[in-house]
Amino acid sequence: MTLTLTLREAPVAPVRAEALAPDRLAGLGAAEIERLALWHGNRRTAVGDLFAVAGGGSDDVRVEGDVRRLSGLGTGMAGGRLTITGDAGPHTGAEMAGGEIVVEGDAGDLAGVGMRGGRLVVRGSAGRRLGGAYAGERAGMRGGEILVHGDTGDEAGAGLRRGLIAVAGRTGDAAGLSALAGTIVAFGALGAHPGAGMRRASIVAMTEPGLLPTYAPACTYRPPFVRLCLRRLRELGLPVTEAQIEGRYTRWSGDGLELRRGEILILEAR
Amino acid sequence: MRLHDAEVEDTFAEAFPMWGARIVVTADTPGWAEHAGRSLTGFATSVIGCKCEAGIERVLDASETPDGRPGIAVLLFAPDAEGLGKRLVERVGQTVLTCPTTACFNGLDADDDVDVGGQLRFFGDGWQASKVLDGRRYWRIPVMEGEFLVEERFGIVEGVGGGNIIILAADVATALGAAEAAADAMRAVEGAIMPFPGGIARSGSKVGSRYKAVIASTNHVLCPTLRAQADDTQVPDGVGSVFEIVIDGLAPEPVAEAMRVGLEAAARSGATHLTAGNYGGNLGPHHFPLKDLVP
Predict the structure, then answer these.
(1) Which whole-number Å values give the CA distances from B55 to B46, B52, B70, B196, in the listed order?
(2) Count of A–B CB contacts within 8 Å?
(3) Is position A98 within any domain?
(4) Is A36 within the bounds of a domain?
(5) Is residue A4 part of a domain?
(6) DSSP-derived 3-state class of residue A71
(7) Residue A110 φ/ψ region, left for φ over 0, alpha for ψ in the -120 to 50 degree band, beta for the rest
(8) pTM of the predicted model as reported, rounded to 2 decimal places
(9) Fewest CB within 10 angstroms: A101, B92, B281, B295, which?
(10) Domains, chain B, ranges and CATH?
(11) Distance in angstroms (rounded) separating the CA atoms of residues B211 and B12
(12) What dihedral angle (degrees, nearest 10) is formed by the CA atoms of A217, A249, A166, A208?
């Protein structure tokens, strides 16, 4: 039976909600879950003080209510499913390694930061540093999939090392900043300076972005991996067109200030 | 036993464990997928001389392939898992990597696997790149045409090699017609291939020879031309030609099913006698009695 956590009222201070991950809640009864400790601002509190707890016994968890001030929902989760029915706060799905998080609304900054596996789906838009790295860390997301149906803020995939980030709407500035590897697919407009400092990663752009002068064109072709990747994204519910799957892409290599092993693949205009 | 117009001998086919893999090759057109498939399965009729056995399992519609392009499914078998891994690297590297517009994918979910793309990546000379998608790693190898995409790991299973039926008829044309009908019917069975040309072997062999260096030699007891010379001939009166169809499968079930439909088709198409090859039951652990396959 799905475990439902319904927020009693919006918290007055930020709440650190790292304890609320489906796989860690699965083995607990309602009373045990209610007793779990959370930090509400600088005060220690219990889950039961903030949430009405119903159901349980499974790794399928729903969080209802205005949880924008809760940070780190699903942090480090390795399995199960977490559904956030509204908007989610920052650090949602941070360092998650497996399972699935679905945010029905928007997600805050640093969603999927340091992610290692699993899938994070944001039906709305996401904030800054989606799938990025923590400040001071070299590598960000190391695996898994992040799908954003709306827009995303700046520096999506900053330090990306492995995994797939797909954004149906607009992708902010400096996508793939200093990315080491991995793939970002931008279906909407792509902000300024994509791939700045990128070493080996791929950015697939469906619109013509403004490129840094440290990127150089190679050729226009049909990358076999792109069609595989786009078919996967279509399977996962993103609006991928046949023209994008069958289309030709111009490969720009860069960043010339780094290894020049990264690529920005830009769909050829018809 | 009678099956339509044919006499079915009460015997069995004796088969052996072989490790198998399914390779899915896609290309821009069905023609290029077929070119790759034919090269990939070339010179792979018998482990005796080719180190592996392979065949085209079936043509794949674009809707069935990982990248949505036309494709072909190939089964490749070798006596052991290590050998199968080596043959896959050699053959995919020489026949699929080189073939215009192709990509190559694992077509078998299995507990065991071997590294294929992870070996072929070295052809990229440092320019290769990998991508992980849905838990599977792919290698992108730059080539003069553009880019070759190959999956890193290929699933392998312990299957069955050497299932067979033997078709006898009055003359070459009739026996071959019956064998062709059998092979056509057997191609519809998923998980099995017939590695000989057109699925049919005209030169069934026996183990050993009177010559020390030769490990297999003509199956003289079923050679019609020797009927009056060989004391141990098994060619019945009125038989002028004999063909064998060898079947390898990913499991015993598809081998048995291929034998069943092959016997049925041959019996309806001019075969006068149907039998199977074995070694007395002492060598291969898989036995397929014909009486279990004939209604």
Answers:
(1) 11, 10, 18, 8
(2) 46
(3) no
(4) no
(5) no
(6) strand
(7) left
(8) 0.95
(9) B295
(10) 2-14+159-292 (3.30.70.520), 19-157 (3.30.70.520)
(11) 28
(12) 60
